[in-house]
Design a protein that fits this description.
Elements (H helix, E strand, L loop, with lengths): L2 E12 L2 E12 L3 E5 L6 H8 L9 E6 L2 E3 L4 H6 L2 E4 L11 H6 L5 E2 L2 E2 L1 H14 L15 H13 L5 E5 L7 H16 L3 E5 L3 H7 L2 E6 L2 E7 L7 H9 L17 E11 L7 E11 L3 E5 L6 H8 L6 E9 L2 E3 L4 H6 L2 E4 L3 H5 L6 H6 L7 E2 L2 E2 L1 H14 L16 H14 L4 E5 L7 H16 L3 E5 L3 H7 L2 E6 L2 E7 L5 H14 L2
Helix pairs in contact: 4-5
Bound molecules: adenosine-5'-triphosphate (ATP) and magnesium ion.
Length: about 500
């Protein structure tokens, strides 16, 4: 089959970093081509070169698309050639509606007047295509990340697509939404649209990809043809990390003590619609040394629960009691929550977790400035030591710790967020999708850190949409559905089916 895209000898450097070193990529007409590699391997950078985000002249090498050499000067250029990219960090405007976001910059107009009725109609059709049941007038900011992703795809479909690039589209989606998205890709393929899929979820890759290109340290390791013979995940992992990886989850001997953290009858209402109850009478207890999971579908209220507990950072009309070591505590503001030893690692690193235009050092020490101060003056040498220590422990890839976090790869940003909260030395740690967008090797490192925290007597709560992950690292699992905790089980007795059944039953109860 003919190639639709050939990238030849692409080299791209940033000050102090060679992000891409003579990379070759060939995508055939109408295929799904997966691009995999560790955090910082250069995947997003390669796609930014392709789509003109990094314009011609800022890299070396050649791009051939549909048989012609292309020199894109910007994203509008690549779009008019039919290359549409959906970035890893979503780029929608939260205060605008779905329709406005989809047609931002290319509104259908008649006689120079924007035809909003037509736009709304088209939006409705596009939303149907991506399986999103929301009104076109819904504000994007009121949607969860998963649904925002679908809006991005609907937006891509509103343009003339030849090659669709998805940078970790399913990172924030639960299993059924991911499944729907992958079917969507297969459908596009049936219509002759080629796509490039970047993903850390290798099971998805092996399910849909026709070819897989592995990048390591800015270089092409190999391209595998999945149609010739099935590609094993272990083989891909070996090529990605350059070594053998024996286990996905580190072993641990849990030593669980008495209850350290407890909430009783926790209820929270929607911030905009005070009548809507988002978290309903939740009771939760976590013991010292215990890793507890909260399973549930997107929209079950898990993040809302954790955030409402963590200094009321979500919701209105919050009620309920919180206890640490049996003593009732006031967690009413974020500083008070932190002061009582709580930490919350967010799923949305771009908005809540990082100060992107600050360097790695200041992001790491942000939540515990006392830890790097002597007599209330910041000790910069100590700060640097701390940051370097975490960089080593979590294997954060940066040219050095004074690098701006904005320039780190997505997975490495996530590691910085995690470092920040580890350094705050919390007693109770909420981790919300802690391994979202993290490569397999680095996941293992994060699980190891979770184990170390538990071994040090902390109470750890993990929210994750990846059920195998919860089953692999937790001692006990709560299941949340429609704002309620509907089941609780020791992880040893839990299975994906049991969790799913609990979710379904929970949904039935609610009219
Ligand atoms: N604007 C920039 N300035 C400096 N360095 C950068 C910039 N953008 C990317 N880098 C560096 O280039 C390398 C490749 O980053 P890239 O974002 O392409 O990785 P990735 O493979 O997409 O990783 P992830 O899986 O974590 O998203 C990293 O070392 C990153 O720090
Ligand atoms: Mg990336």
């Amino acid at each position: 089959m003919n190639a639709i895209l050939e990238m030849r000898g692409i080299t791209k450097t940033f000050p102090g970093v060679r992000a891409l070193d003579n990379v070759n990529l060939v995508v055939r007409e109408g295929e799904i081509h997966a691009l995999v590699g560790e955090n910082g391997a250069g995947k997003s950078t390669l796609m930014k070169v392709l789509s003109g985000v990094y314009p011609y002249g800022s890299y070396t090498g050649e791009i051939h698309f549909q048989g012609q050499e292309r020199r894109f000067r910007g994203i509008a250029d690549s779009e008019s050639a039919g290359i549409i990219i959906i970035h890893q960090e979503l780029a929608l405007v939260p205060l605008l509606s779905i329709t406005e976001n989809i047609f931002l910059g290319n509104e259908p107009a008649r006689y120079g007047i924007i035809d909003w009725d037509a736009a709304t109609e088209r939006t409705r059709a596009l939303l149907r295509k991506v399986g999103l049941r929301e009104s076109p007038a819904t504000l994007v900011g009121d949607l969860g990340v998963g649904k925002q992703q679908l809006v991005e795809i609907a937006k891509a479909l509103s343009k003339e697509v030849r090659l669709l690039i998805l940078d970790e589209p399913t990172a924030s989606l639960n299993e059924s939404d991911s499944e729907a998205l992958l079917s969507l890709l297969l459908e596009f393929k049936a219509h002759g649209i080629a796509s490039i899929l970047i993903s850390h979820k290798l099971n998805e890759v092996s399910r849909v990809a026709d070819s897989v290109t592995v990048l390591r340290d800015g270089m092409t390791v190999e391209t595998l043809d999945c149609r010739a013979e099935p590609v094993s995940e272990d083989h891909v992992i070996r090529r990605m990390v350059g070594r053998e990886l024996a286990d996905r989850y580190p072993r641990r001997q849990p030593r669980v003590g008495e209850v350290l953290f407890e909430v009783r009858d926790w209820t929270a209402h929607h911030p905009l619609d005070a009548e809507r109850v988002v978290v309903k009478g939740v009771n939760m207890a976590v013991r010292r040394g215990e890793v507890v999971g909260i399973a549930g579908l997107m929209g079950a209220g898990r993040t809302e629960f954790a955030m409402s507990v963590f200094g009321r950072s979500y919701g209105r009309r919050i009620s309920g009691q919180a206890f640490i070591e049996g003593r009732e505590v006031d967690l009413g503001t974020v500083p008070r929550a932190i002061g009582n030893g709580l930490a919350y690692v967010t799923e949305d690193r771009k908005h809540l977790g990082l100060i992107l235009n600050e360097d790695v050092v200041h992001n790491v020490t942000l939540a515990n400035l006392d830890g790097v101060a002597s007599r209330s003056v910041i000790d910069e040498m100590r700060e640097l030591e701390v940051a370097n220590d975490y960089r080593r422990r979590l294997n954060i890839r940066c040219s050095d710790v004074s690098q701006t976090t904005l320039n780190l790869s997505g997975g490495n940003q996530q590691k910085v967020v995690l470092s920040k909260w580890l350094f705050a030395e919390p007693r109770v740690l909420f981790l919300d999708e802690p391994t979202r967008g993290i490569d397999v090797g680095a996941k293992y490192e994060i699980y190891t850190i979770i184990n170390q925290l538990a071994a040090a007597g902390k109470a750890v709560v993990v929210i994750s949409s990846e059920m195998p992950e919860l089953l692999g690292i937790c001692d006990r699992i709560y299941v949340m559905s429609e704002g309620r905790f509907v089941a609780e089980m020791p992880a040893a007795e839990a299975t994906q089916e049991k969790i799913m059944r609990a979710i379904m039953k929970g949904e039935e109860k609610v009219p």
